[in-house]
């Protein structure tokens, strides 16, 4: 079976805020609808990780603490191939961004969101909807008015169309838990999504939304059983939220 990887990197370029709008109450229906986009085959995360310099790897682990999930991918920087990596740990979310130094050689700029001790909370989500009958929407699907409101809120907080589509494939409760601080007004600073697998089975899935005061994340896996489609994919996720005590870099 061919393996595919796709990553999204969304950074805020302009401050915009969404006020309280009722979108986060309940979490029974999706705020967004969408699907995962699988690109072409690429090197796996282990291969990319070991291409990082040893000091960069050590620094990521040192800042993040015990790993909850991680990724590493190739990026083109100044005509060169370099490694971009993220590590979500118990102590923080840390990201290595490839940059060019004065000699135009790739170097890693490290950014970190360090968590306030004792502030982390988590919720396990097992989402296994029934097979969808022809002509019927899945129970968690958005209605037209909710879809319009959800898209407007996502535009305000700064997610790209691709990022919103990826979050739109996730279970309703996961969407609410991930987006809640940001649709309520917190400034979103960084959004990272990584997944690895095939359209029918995604063995590694991680998304992190980092704000000025809060980091939300979801890690887990996704599976589309025979006879099912994207809207009724089965998910096993752990959603987490932690308060930011200190930031390093952007």
Largest sheet: 10 strands, antiparallel
Number of helices: 5
Radius of gyration: 18 Å
Q: Roughly what percent helix?
A: 10-25%
Number of strands: 10
Low-pLDDT stretches are 1-26
What fraction of the residues are assigned to beta strands by DSSP? Answer: 35-45%
Structural class call reads alpha+beta
Name the average pLDDT: 81
Distance between the termini: 38 Å
Q: Which overall shape is indicated by the principal axes computed on the Cα atoms?
A: globular
Q: Please, how many domains?
A: 2
Element-by-element helix/strand order:
EHHEEEEEHHHEEEE
Concise synopsis of the structure shown:
20% of the residues lie in helices and 40% in strands.
Describe the protein's architecture and organization.
The protein is α+β, with helices and mostly antiparallel strands. It is built from five helices and ten strands, in the order E-H-H-E-E-E-E-E-H-H-H-E-E-E-E. The protein has helices spanning 45-49, 54-64, 144-157, 161-168, 172-183, and strands at 4-11, 67-77, 80-89, 92-100, 106-115, 121-127, 188-197, 201-211, 214-223, 234-248. Strands 1, 2, 3, 4, 5, 6, 7, 8, 9 and 10 form a ten-stranded antiparallel β-sheet that branches. The longest helix has 14 residues, at 144-157.
